[in-house]
């Protein structure tokens, strides 16, 4: 589990690989969801500090290639993308 790996400094490279895999998967999912949830998908990509050209690209095939995510980008936290519904 990633939280176990994160506690061991000797496994830092393994943790980096796990985080990269998760972020790259999220990036590709955001592009695949773009036709159905354009605002939310764009916000996900913005929070990953991706450039505007990628965020506004309509070439899903080329944007969904594995390995396009650059290392060292900052991920910013924002408000909930899908706020909880109030229960009755």
TrEMBL record:
Domain of life: Bacteria
UniProt entry keywords in alphabetical sequence: ATP-binding, Ligase, Nucleotide-binding
Gene Ontology process terms (BP): tRNA aminoacylation for protein translation
Positions of the Methionyl-tRNA synthetase anticodon-binding domain: 1-85
Cross-referenced Pfam families: Anticodon_3
Family matches, as InterPro entries: Anticodon_Met (IPR041872), tRNAsynth_Ia_anticodon-bd (IPR009080)
TM stretches of this protein: none
GO molecular function, one term: aminoacyl-tRNA ligase activity
Record carries keyword Signal: no
Descriptive protein name: Methionine--tRNA ligase
Organism of this sequence: Lancefieldella parvula
């Amino acid at each position: 589990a990633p939280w176990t790996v994160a506690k061991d400094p000797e496994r830092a490279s393994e943790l980096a690989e796990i985080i990269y895999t998760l972020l790259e998967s999220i990036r590709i999912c955001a592009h695949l969801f773009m036709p159905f949830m354009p605002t939310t998908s764009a916000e996900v990509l913005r929070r990953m500090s991706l450039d505007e050209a990628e965020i506004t690209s309509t070439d899903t095939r080329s944007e969904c290639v594995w390995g396009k995510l650059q290392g060292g980008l900052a991920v910013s936290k924002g408000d909930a993308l899908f706020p909880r519904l109030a229960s009755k």
